[in-house]
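Contributing: when you submit paired examples, paste them exactly as shown. First protein:
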Amino acid sequence: MKNTVNEKNSEFAAPEEVFERYADMVYRLGFVRTKSQYDADDILQEVFLRYMKVWQNMQSPDHIKATLLKITVNCSNNLLTSSWFKKTDPLSDTLRAADIPDDGTLAAVLKLPVKYRTAIHLHYYMGYSVEEIAKITSAKPATVKTWLSRGREKLKTTLETEDL
């Protein structure tokens, strides 16, 4: 069976190229949300399996990136709210140093509740605006502003107490 892809999409939407370009971004967001490299690996696989179903509908590189981020948030939400996940004890895993550079703040960010660490990661590490984060997380912009504000406060408190 021949794969039909329109000319416009074929140059940037092929799954292999998209995986090479965005796998690190998806993995990092999955890790920040789950705090587990093993769960982040599972999310990475699930995200690209889901992407394979819709890749021919992509309209631009920005559309691809937004779609991958949205799928990543949804997959991690599914994992974090599953009854299986709630009844398991996390494995003691350490993040490989090459995966995500850490200047000391990553550990503090990972101590935040998932909504705060997601907003902080998307805003400060990935450079998304409040409105873009709202679209990715299906939240209102005012809610995202609250998450960022409260997350910064909690982060400040955590970093100050660790410095003492």
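Second protein:
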Amino acid sequence: MLTVGMKHEKELTTGPEHSARNFFPDLPDVFGTPYLVGLFERVSAELMAPHLGPGEQSVGAGMDLKHTAPTPLGMKVRAVTELVEVDKRKHVFRLEAFDEKEKIGEATHIRYIIDAAKFMQKVEAKKG
């Protein structure tokens, strides 16, 4: 059962595959914001996964993010998520990220529990 106060952490070592330059060549060669978004989504999904029923998945539905400090490639980044609200299928998380020197970002993230089969039916119907 998913309950308010649950926490989970995820760490990764940044590399060239996490560079902001992968999105636009004139950006700094540092840990890119889109990768921070992905890390925040992953750590929250990982927290939820063991508590989902058969045929259920979670999907991200929104994120309010602040990426507050740069991280050189090669440094480790640690993301911490905490479940702060549960409203039926809606789950709200508060997140923070840290590199080896300082806090680098924070976010509020919303995820919903979905019926995977119904969700994919909608996706297929959208294809036409």
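If you have annotations for the second protein, write them as plain sentences, like these:
Strands lie at 7-13, 56-67, 76-87, 90-98, 103-115.
The chain has two helices and five strands.
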